[in-house]
Write a structure and sequence with these properties.
Two copies of one chain form a homodimer. The first copy, chain A, has 347 residues and is of the alpha/beta class. Chain A has two domains: 3-154 and 296-346, Medium-chain alcohol dehydrogenases, catalytic domain (Quinone Oxidoreductase, Chain A, domain 1), CATH 3.90.180; 158-292, Rossmann fold, CATH 3.40.50. Chain A contains twelve helices and 19 strands. In chain A, strands 3, 5, 6, 9, 10, 18 and 19 form a seven-stranded mixed beta sheet that branches. A six-stranded parallel beta sheet of chain A has the order 13-12-11-14-15-17, sandwiched between helices. In chain A, strands 2-1-4 form a three-stranded antiparallel beta sheet. The longest helix of chain A has 13 residues, at 297-309. The model of chain A has no long low-confidence stretch (mean pLDDT 97). At the A-B interface, strand 15, strand 16, helix 10 and strand 17 of A face strand 15, strand 16, helix 10 and strand 17 of B.
């Protein structure tokens, strides 16, 4: 039995790269993937910020792209050497939920890094339901497109899910709340879907500058009531048809209700750090819809992939730092300190 | 100046029928309508249950159908003698919100019974924005269809709005929460839109019996966790695609999240008696949408009217008691005590 390196989280602020056994096939539907690129997600920062200390580490990371090393006997669509990307939730892609495009509710799926399933921030990963989970990419191991293709794991489909569920299309005005990697991806997705006006709410100039390159027509750096007023000023007092909430805090949801136009839709893809949202009589009288949720990335990869391959979008620009596996703890620290937008990992 | 009778609310439990001046045209866009039928709404029971006592009465009632007595100089689409129905919110029906079908957010509209505008539970009503607000009905003053036509003011379009915003259509499974007049109207609307299965949650047998006649395929009388379990049992554990929340209490919203299928939609049309709803990480992971709001009844009347005129639906069956104006206080009491489902008023 061989060994490899992988990232484990022991608690708040305590991420370690340790030696673990190489992954092996458990089920005939598994594949083993050698990781070419992985990354740190904004949602990894929630346990990094708050997980109680424990004496054993949990595998972490749910975004990766790699090369198939070995496929189980029941895996028919993949072979050793294929370059593949994994969505941030694994799924059989054949059950009724998957066929409806809701692979996050797959009847035989699950999450990375829990219940004996590997995390993505390591040298290799055992992939359950490999046929359903992995998508083959028509590129080589050294493609310059790898960073953008890696975003198909999570942030780009998450931004897209937010825009799609909000109903963004031509003639739609959009507010995007949050200038993290998901917020910027939501800007890109809204632009790609034809939104005529995209207001980005964020206060990190380097990030909002990238947001403008991704398609934001306006940037509002104010927050809370002042931010709401600014967006209303930009829209003749009415607010925007759709709001893409890419933060996950209740303040952001409140801001979303403040800047959405009557009859409009707020979509949330920021993992909620709250239990309740304010949907009172006032929101009711304005017919505001709250939608969104965890993005079924797998459902969108086929649609988004050609735009990356043909260079029409470059979502990988959200990566502003690259580290090796040994530097993953520094990568977490940099993202938590907001000195890095999103950290790419080259094992 | 003549006088007439109208209903005023002085506070919780204190509804009085008093003599008030006859309505007159104020604006050239007004009309005066003599009321043929009005009714008490479930939402009138909220102030009836909780309004602080005051020394002056406020006009009340927002559902009525009547005859145009006089129309202002700028009213072009109506003439004296026309039988008309009024939606429960008045609107110009020409602004951008109205053209989008959101007359409840009309830029020049408002509510009945506030800011000097008459309530509907009286002998006559001054109707602002009469051209936009009123819809002419091709029936006589003594039509047997008046009760069903009166439901176009509120409960039938409200049930319809709930079903439409939830996305009910053929192959949709539906849970309706609440066996009041709106809940039963939602059953009727869901059936009309082709829903294949309609589970009605309610515990008043006389009401749920009418619900079955309106199209409910299953009735669940249990509430809370037990009710959720029953609906899940009926749907192979999954819940229904859509949930129509017709109560307005947070318990009903919680039940709705409990019985909705992953990826499904909860629509709420019960006027919210709560400020927050539980939309935590679990709801997020299941991609549940919360939509609905106050129904723009005006937007739906043209579509729903033919089905009433041609006898395909009989929404007026929700009225199980008729009173004269002098008996309106008894009507309120009967609805508050749940001895009447919905009270029709013949002034």
């Amino acid at each position: 039995m061989g060994f490899m390196k992988a990232t484990l989280i022991y608690g708040s602020g305590d991420v370690r790269v340790e030696t673990v056994p190489d992954p092996k096939l458990h089920e005939p539907t598994d594949a083993v993937v050698r990781v070419l690129r992985s990354c740190v997600c904004g949602s990894d920062l929630w346990p990094y910020g708050a997980k109680p200390a424990q004496d054993h580490g949990d595998r972490i990371g749910h975004e990766f792209l790699g090369v198939v090393e070995e496929a189980g006997s029941e895996v028919s669509g993949l072979k050793a050497g294929d370059v593949v990307v994994a969505p941030f939730v694994w799924a059989d892609n054949t059950c009724d939920f998957c066929r409806e495009g809701l692979q996050t509710s797959c009847r035989h799926g699950g999450q990375w890094g829990v219940s004996g399933v590997d995390g993505g921030q390591g040298e290799a990963v055992r992939v359950p339901q490999a046929d359903g989970t992995l998508v083959t990419l028509p590129v080589g191991e050294d493609s310059a497109l790898l960073p953008s293709l890696l975003t198909l794991s999570d942030v780009f489909p998450t931004g897209h899910h937010c825009a799609v569920t909000a109903g963004v299309g031509p003639h739609t005005t959009v507010t995007v709340i949050g200038d993290g990697a998901v917020g910027l991806s939501a800007v890109l997705a809204a632009k790609r879907l034809g939104a005529e006006r995209i207001v980005l709410m964020g206060r990190h100039t380097d990030r909002t500058d990238l947001g403008r390159e991704f398609g934001a027509t306006d940037v509002v750096s104010e927050r809370g009531a002042e931010g709401v007023e600014r967006v209303r000023d930009l829209t003749a007092g009415d607010g925007t048809h759709t709001v893409l909430e890419c933060v996950g805090l209740v303040d952001a949801v409140e801001t979303a209700f403040g800047v959405v136009r009557d009859g409009g839709t707020v979509s949330r893809v920021g993992a909620p750090q709250y239990a309740e949202v304010p949907m009172d009589f006032g929101v009711f009288m304005r017919n505001i819809t709250l939608t969104g949720g965890v993005a079924p990335a797998r459902a969108y990869i086929d649609e988004l992939l050609p735009d990356i391959l043909e260079g029409r979008v470059e979502p990988g620009r959200v990566f502003d730092r690259t580290v090796g596996l040994d530097q993953v703890p520094e990568g977490y620290r940099a993202m938590a300190d907001r000195t890095a937008l999103k950290v790419l990992i080259r094992p």
